[in-house]
């Protein structure tokens, strides 16, 4: 970095010196066609320069340069294919908690032979750790974390193939998902979970919840168990997370469709059938088999039950007795995360991806402004839901989803947001995963993980998926990260400019569009960006959930990993490699930022307990050996 600033190279020149590229190739031509005005490689760096200029308001130029010089406070590590976690020299990691670890005393320690006791399954750290946030409550540090889904063969090791044998197996799976809230403390031996803390809580797929916002009480939410359509049981496939300025946790229901099935052909209205088709609800489900043991999940008996999932749920981590609230104004789709930021006038902006091939990127803007100490109970109920439309000239707009623009009622827009967004011609995206807002520059990033159907097939609503705009590669195997800057430096604005921060690829295997953008090189190969967070210094942490075969198109990528990216220069370096089989997902920091907590989801054995033991999803704590902050 210092070379770049001292020599006053342009960012393009710096990149060319450090990561020389072949002369013009098909990739350049594809880009040229896709982006007429400035070409997105120029755009990446031109936009980065703009970001530097913007941050000059917060940081004097010389300070910004000094920060750049220390941006990568680590020596990048090589790709790995083994079954442990690697971090750079000068850093260390320890395990904080793993699937099956008790949150309360009196619970048996994890038993690998049975995959944890079924009777304790709602009192232990659940399976498949994912999005997480840390809260400081009354001086205590409390983590809220998602348990996205289960690995049935691992969680039910007594079964031959992970198929539940009875209602007790189903209940165990339901209990191992949802959310865990627990206090942590750092002592001489490192970080540990505080057993029996008054904050400790498990929320499962059976925890009572309330609906709020425009869909509340709508006929499509009414079931035999709740004739008023105002309550719901449980939360499903909790993927990414968010944190509000008023200290609540947002958990995001993603692949909820997989939990439902039918014991006989359901009789559906046309509207419900259209919704099932768009959201992928089938008679078979995804193998959980809940519907065979629990009629709530049998769509032939409860056709509205799937409408009660696919939401963002707000949870108060300071009050373990509080009832989680499903905020229907934020729309119903396969929610990835909920990145929350305040507009200059105090309105709350929530950015949200819908992670499915060819689905959309959304945002919600509250009607009222947030004021510290004021009532926040309706801020996420009243406001406007928008969907993104990207143009090839590198501008874009947020299109409001209203009865006027969609011909649907407000409740229908909430319940069938995808269908509403199709009606306004939203841009089909390459699977929007996490959105991250830069805290020191008015810009946001979204990981577009990959999309095998780009330019090949329409989405489930029949919207075509053109090779264009921020999705410029057919049958996109590697993914990219799109970035936008809202007009007027206001995240509530209805227009923006965008560019691509990075196109993942493999220049050791391909020339052309699959080589990736100029900031991809042999030393930082990755695919399928997914989790993302930007730290207090503006460094982008990128987590991957991709092909870890280390072969063919993915040779040299190794296991899933976490990298750090400089938004100004575009430079990206590898910080962590996960164990074989795992996805690296979920990231938060301790209050003093001297510890970074990272999630390791669905590793293969022997991580972390060794040979002959079941693999366990785990949160790890990473520190610098000199105990300086890590973000
Ligand atoms: Fe649960 Fe889209 O990741
Ligand atoms: Ca994800
Ligand atoms: Ca993913």
UniProtKB/TrEMBL annotation:
Q: Name one Pfam family in it.
A: PhoX
- Transmembrane ranges? 39-59
Q: Does the keyword Oxidoreductase apply?
A: no
Q: Which organism is it from?
A: Flavimaribacter sediminis
Keywords of this entry: Membrane, Transmembrane, Transmembrane helix
SUPFAM superfamilies assigned: Calcium-dependent phosphotriesterase (SSF63829)
The name under which this protein is listed is: PhoX family phosphatase
- Lineage of source species: Bacteria, Pseudomonadati, Pseudomonadota, Alphaproteobacteria, Hyphomicrobiales
In terms of superkingdom, the source organism counts as: Bacteria
Q: Which InterPro entries match?
A: PhoX, TAT_signal, TAT_signal_bac_arc
């Amino acid at each position: 970095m210092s070379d770049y600033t001292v020599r006053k190279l342009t960012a393009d020149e710096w990149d060319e010196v450090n990561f020389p590229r072949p002369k013009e190739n098909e990739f350049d031509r594809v880009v040229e066609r896709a982006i007429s005005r400035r070409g997105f490689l120029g755009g990446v760096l031109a936009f980065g320069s703009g970001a530097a200029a913007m941050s000059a308001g917060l940081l004097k130029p010389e300070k910004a340069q000094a920060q750049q010089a220390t941006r990568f406070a680590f020596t990048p590590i090589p790709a790995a294919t083994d079954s442990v976690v690697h971090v750079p020299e000068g850093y260390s990691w320890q395990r904080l908690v793993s699937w099956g670890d008790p949150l309360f005393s009196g619970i048996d320690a994890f038993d690998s032979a049975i995959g944890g006791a079924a009777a304790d399954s709602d009192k232990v750290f659940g399976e498949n750790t994912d999005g997480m946030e840390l809260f400081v409550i009354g001086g205590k540090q409390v983590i809220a974390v998602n348990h996205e889904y289960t690995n049935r063969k691992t969680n039910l090791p007594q079964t031959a193939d992970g198929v539940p044998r009875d209602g007790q197996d189903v209940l165990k799976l339901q209990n191992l998902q949802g959310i865990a809230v627990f206090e942590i403390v750092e002592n001489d031996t490192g970080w540990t979970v505080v057993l029996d803390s008054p904050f400790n809580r498990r929320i499962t797929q059976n925890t009572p919840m309330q609906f709020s916002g425009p869909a509340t009480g709508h006929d499509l939410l009414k079931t035999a168990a709740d004739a008023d359509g105002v309550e719901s049981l449980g939360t499903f496939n909790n993927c990414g997370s968010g944190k509000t300025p008023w200290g609540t946790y947002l958990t995001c229901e993603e692949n909820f469709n997989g939990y439902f099935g039918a014991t006989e052909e359901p009789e559906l209205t046309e509207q419900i059938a259209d919704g099932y088709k768009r959201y992928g609800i089938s008679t078979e489900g995804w193998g959980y088999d809940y519907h065979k043991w629990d009629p709530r999940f049998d769509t032939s008996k409860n056709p509205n039950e799937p409408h009660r999932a696919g939401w963002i749920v707000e949870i108060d981590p300071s009050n373990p007795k509080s009832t989680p609230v499903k905020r229907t104004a934020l729309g119903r789709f396969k929610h990835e995360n909920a990145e929350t930021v305040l507009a200059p006038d105090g309105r709350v902006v929530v950015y949200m991806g819908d992670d499915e091939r060819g689905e959309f990127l959304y945002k919600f803007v509250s009607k009222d402004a947030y004021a510290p100490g004021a009532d926040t109970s309706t801020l996420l109920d009243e406001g406007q839901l928008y969907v993104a439309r990207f143009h090839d000239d590198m501008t874009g707009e947020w299109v409001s989803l209203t009865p006027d623009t969609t011909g649907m009622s407000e409740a229908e827009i909430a319940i069938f947001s995808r269908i509403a967004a199709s009606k306004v011609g939203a841009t089909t995206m390459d699977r929007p995963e996490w959105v991250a807002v830069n805290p020191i520059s008015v810009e946001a990033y979204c990981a577009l993980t990959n999309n095998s159907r780009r330019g090949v097939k329409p989405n489930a609503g029949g919207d075509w998926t053109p090779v264009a705009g921020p999705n410029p590669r057919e049958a996109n195997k590697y993914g990219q990260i799109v970035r936008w800057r809202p007009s007027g430096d206001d995240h509530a604005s209805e227009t923006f400019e965008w560019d691509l921060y990075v196109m993942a690829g493999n220049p050791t295997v391909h020339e052309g569009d699959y080589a990736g953008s100029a900031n991809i090189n042999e030393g930082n190969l990755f695919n399928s960006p997914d989790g993302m967070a930007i730290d207090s210094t503006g460094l982008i942490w990128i987590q991957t959930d991709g092909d870890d075969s280390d072969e063919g198109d993915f040779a040299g990528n190794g296991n899933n990993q976490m990298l750090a990216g400089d938004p100004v220069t575009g430079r990206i370096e590898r910080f962590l490699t996960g164990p074989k089989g795992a996805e690296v997902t979920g990231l938060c920091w301790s209050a003093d930022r001297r510890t970074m907590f990272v999630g390791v989801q669905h590793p293969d054995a022997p991580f972390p307990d060794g040979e002959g033991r079941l693999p366990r999803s785990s949160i790890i704590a990473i520190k610098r050996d000199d105990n300086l902050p890590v973000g």
